[in-house]
């Protein structure tokens, strides 16, 4: 997978090495310099004695994610695990649970984080960023399309001035997408090995 830059956006969430689906999850732990992210939208909270979520990957396969951390309830609350949001599991390895179900057993909370959007929204935002790149507009204001030097501090989206940034934050939905865009842009610059 080609690595992008701050000004070149190439991220492909359908790339199976960096973002494997259920059919392409590696069976061996990552080698030095190698990594991947399992993307799983939470579709149901099925917790009983510990936090357990039914999730769906980008090809529609369903599996469970169970938390076996030192403080599972606190970790899940801190991560804001919510139905309809995307769970991101770094270097996830499939696990067969005692009841025969397959999924992911989270033992280290630092390997998992949440994106506050659905899988469809994540794909849509990624496609929009790729389109902006393909149209040669990465150096332009996201709101008015004029050349721009100012950037959002968190996600690096460009603005020509404070008025466009304030308007986009309020009316354009940037408030809801900023953290998602920041993560996508980080992944865009990542060499997945």
From TrEMBL:
Keyword Hydrolase: no
Gene3D superfamilies: 6.10.140.2220
GO MF terms held by the record: zinc ion binding
Keywords: Metal-binding, Zinc, Zinc-finger
PROSITE patterns, per database record: ZF_MYND_2 (PS50865)
InterPro entries, per database record: Znf_MYND (IPR002893)
Residue stretches making up the MYND-type domain: 141-178
Domain of life of the organism encoding this protein: Eukaryota
Protein name: MYND-type domain-containing protein
């Amino acid at each position: 997978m080609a690595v992008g830059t701050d000004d070149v956006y190439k991220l492909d969430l359908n790339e199976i090495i960096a973002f494997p689906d259920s059919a392409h999850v590696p069976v061996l732990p990552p080698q030095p310099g190698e990594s991947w992210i399992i993307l799983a939208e939470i579709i149901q909270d099925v917790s009983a004695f510990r936090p357990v979520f039914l999730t769906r990957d980008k090809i529609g396969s369903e599996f469970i994610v169970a938390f076996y951390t030192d403080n599972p309830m606190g970790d899940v609350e801190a991560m804001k695990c919510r139905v309809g949001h995307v769970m991101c599991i770094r270097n996830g390895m499939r696990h067969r649970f005692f009841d025969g179900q397959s999924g992911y057993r989270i033992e280290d909370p630092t390997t998992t984080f949440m994106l506050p959007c659905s899988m469809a929204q994540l794909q849509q935002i990624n496609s929009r960023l790729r389109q902006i790149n393909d149209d040669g507009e990465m150096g332009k204001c996201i709101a008015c399309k004029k050349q721009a030097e100012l950037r959002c501090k968190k996600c690096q989206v460009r603005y020509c001035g404070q008025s466009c940034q304030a308007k986009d934050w309020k009316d354009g939905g940037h408030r809801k997408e900023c953290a998602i865009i920041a993560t996508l842009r980080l992944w865009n610059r990542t060499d997945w090995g």
